[in-house]
Amino acid sequence: MQTLTVGLAERSYPIYIGSDLLGCAELLLPHLPHKRAAVVTNTTVAPLYLDPLRATLQAHGVNMIPIILPDGEQHKNAETLGLIYDALLSHRCERNTPLIALGGGVIGDMTGYAAATYLRGVPFIQIPTTLLAQVDSSVGGKTGINHPLGKNMIGAFYQPQVVLADITTLNTLSDQELRAGIAEVIKYGLIRDLSFFEWLEQNMEKLLARDADALQYAITRSCQNKAEVVAADERENGERALLNLGHTFGHAIETGMGYGAWLHGEAVAAGTIMAADLSCRLGWLSKEDTDRIRGLFERAGLPVIAPALGVEKYLQLMGLDKKVVGGKIRFVLLKSIGCAVISGDVQPELLRQTLVANSAHG
Amino acid sequence: MQTLTVGLAERSYPIYIGSDLLGCAELLLPHLPHKRAAVVTNTTVAPLYLDPLRATLQAHGVNMIPIILPDGEQHKNAETLGLIYDALLSHRCERNTPLIALGGGVIGDMTGYAAATYLRGVPFIQIPTTLLAQVDSSVGGKTGINHPLGKNMIGAFYQPQVVLADITTLNTLSDQELRAGIAEVIKYGLIRDLSFFEWLEQNMEKLLARDADALQYAITRSCQNKAEVVAADERENGERALLNLGHTFGHAIETGMGYGAWLHGEAVAAGTIMAADLSCRLGWLSKEDTDRIRGLFERAGLPVIAPALGVEKYLQLMGLDKKVVGGKIRFVLLKSIGCAVISGDVQPELLRQTLVANSAHG
C-alpha cells in the first residue's frame, strides 16, 4: 500500500492506494468516531461493494445508512442530489455524520457536494471505485453537479478527510471504463511529467491487462502529480487550471452529445488530441510529438476523433465553459510533452481548423 | 455613516451602516473591477430600489444583470435557486462576476448560496433592505435554502466582500417587517449585552417610529455584537450557536406553520419567550427577568404566544433541527439578561410544560 498526503494546511488529508482496502477498517475508523456514516453509491456499485464495506464497518460497531442512486453522468443533477438530501434528513443525519462516496466520479462529485452543503458542511470520505475517480476526481476537492446549460456549473471546493483507492475494485470495471481512466493518467504525463509519459509508453499493455503493480504505480504517480498541483493552487487561480488539458473541448463533447453518451475520459481523450493539434498549429508542439500523443491514446483504445457536432455548435458549447475570462476562451495547450501552458490568445481561424480536422463529419 | 469590520483573516470584510448608501458608488466600485454584476432581488424590492442601484452603477460604467425572484420565505427553495443559476448561465456570468443581494434575508441567503456554488464560488455583495437582514442574516456568512423537511438544511458558509446597510431603505418597510427585525435586535441584548437591552427598553418607541439616529445606533450595535461572535467562531463550533437563541423553537414554528406564514423574526420572538420560560423553569432566570423580556417583546408589537401546533408536533419538528448532537436537542437558554448558555440537559417534562404554557390552544 502507498500513502500520499495532499498538503492543504488544516485541510490536509491522506490518500491510501493499494489492494483490498475495503477490508481495512483501521484506515476508516479514525474518521468515524460517532459510529455512524451514510454511504452514497449507485445501482451498479452497490451489488459489488456495499456489503463488503458494510461488513467492515459493522464489525467495528459502525452503523451504515446506504443511499443508492441511479448510475450515470445523466443523473449528476439537482434532482439526484435532492435524493441524497432527502435520505440524510429522513435518517436525521447530523453535523457529525460523515458521508462516504463509494463509486466513480459522478458519485464522488455529487456526494462531495452534498457533504459540502448538507447542514452547511459535514465530514466527507472518498472510496473511488473507478480508475478515473482514483486518479482524478477523488483528489483535490472539486465537487458539484451538472446544469442543463453546462457541466459542473454548480459546485464547491470541499476536501475529503481521507481517500481510499482500492485497486481490487478495478477488477470489475469494464474495459471501456478502464480506458477512460487511462485518459486522465496520460494527461498527467502530458502536462508536467515527461518521464511518466515515457513510462506509460512502455507499460500501456500492462495497465490494460490490469497488472496490479502497474496500476498501483500509475495511480500513485498520477495522485502525486495532482496532489502537488492542488497543494500549490487549491482554488484554481493559476497552475491548477493546467489539469483541465483537453477539458474545454471535452466538456463541449459531453454537453453536446448529452451527458452520459460519451464517458468523461473518452471526451477528454478526443479533447486532448484537439488541444495537441491546436498547439501544433500554433507552432508550439512538433508534428512528431503530436503524433506520439495520438499514438498513445490510440494504444489505450481511446477515441481520437471527436463526434460530428459541427464547428458552430462546438464554439457555442465552449462559450459557456467555466474557463472563460473576459469573454475569451482560455485554452490549456502544450509547449512540449510534459509542459502545459494556458493561453487566451488563439486566433479563431486556427481553432476552427482544429475543430474541423479532429471531429467526425456527419 | 458607521463602518465596522468583520475580522476573519483573509475573509475579513467591511459593513457600512448609514443613510442613502445606495447612491454611494465609492463603497461598491472597489468590488466591481470588471464593470459587471448580477443583482438578485425580488418583486417587492425591485420596483423600489433596483433603478436607484442601477443608476449608481451605470453612472460608473458598471453593467447590471437584474434577476428578479418571487417574494417570500416559501420561495427560499431549490426551485427558486435554480432560477438564479439559469439566469447566470444564460447571461454567461463568469467567475469574476459578483452577485449582489438586494433585499431581505431570503434574498441574501439564496443569493449568497448561489454565489458560493455557481462555478464553485463567485464574489458576493450584500445590500440588505430589511432591518432583520441588516442586523442578522447579511452578517456572518451563513447562506442557504430550505428543504421541505427543515429550514436552512442546505447551505454553505460563504462571506460577502462588503455589506451596505442603507437605513433609508427601511422607510418602505411594513410595520410588521420592522418589528420582526427588532426581535433579532433584542436577541443581541439578551445573549451578551445587558446595557444594549437597557438601551432598547429606553428607546423602543424611537425605533418603532423609525428615528434614523436610533436605527443607526441599534443596527451598528447589533452588527458589532454579531461580528464579535462570528470572528471568534465562524463555523459555529461553539459560541456562535448562542446567536440561535429562540431559533430552535422559532424554526419549529416556521416549519410547522409552513414557510412564510410567520415572519422569521416573529417566530424568533415567540421562540425566545419559550427559551426564557424554559430557563425560568430550570431555575436559571428569575421570574422578574422573564416578565421583563416578555414585556419588551410586547412593546415591540411582537407575538409572545406561539401558534397552536400541539406539543407532539413541536417535539417532532425540533427533532429535525440542525442543532441536535447525539440525538439530544441542545437549547440556547438564559442565565440572566445578557448571558446565554447552551444546554443539552433539559428534562423532557420541563420542555413540555414550556410548550404548553407558551403556545395557543386551537
UniProtKB/TrEMBL annotation, chains A, B:
Q: Which residues form the 3-dehydroquinate synthase N-terminal domain?
A: 67-179
Name the gene behind this protein: aroB
Q: Which InterPro entries match?
A: Dehydroquinate_synthase, DHQ_synth_AroB, DHQ_synth_fam, DHQS/DOIS_N, DHQS_C
Cofactors needed by this protein, per the record, are: Co(2+); Zn(2+); NAD(+)
**Pfam families recorded:** DHQ_synthase, DHQS_C
Its top-level enzyme class, in one word, is: lyase
The EC number(s) given in the record are: 4.2.3.4
**Keywords assigned by UniProt?**
Amino-acid biosynthesis, Aromatic amino acid biosynthesis, Cobalt, Cytoplasm, Lyase, Metal-binding, NAD, Nucleotide-binding, Zinc
User: Is Amino-acid biosynthesis given among the entry's keywords?
Assistant: yes
Cofactor binding, note field: Binds 1 divalent metal cation per subunit. Can use either Co(2+) or Zn(2+).
Reactions mediated catalytically: 7-phospho-2-dehydro-3-deoxy-D-arabino-heptonate = 3-dehydroquinate + phosphate
**Has the keyword Metal-binding been applied to this entry?**
yes
Write out the GO MF terms: 3-dehydroquinate synthase activity
Q: Which organism is it from?
A: Candidatus Nitrotoga arctica
Q: In which pathway does it act?
A: Metabolic intermediate biosynthesis; chorismate biosynthesis; chorismate from D-erythrose 4-phosphate and phosphoenolpyruvate: step 2/7
Residues bound to NAD(+) are 71-76, 105-109, 129-130, 142, 151, 169-172
Identification of the protein by name: 3-dehydroquinate synthase
Name the HAMAP family on file.
DHQ_synthase
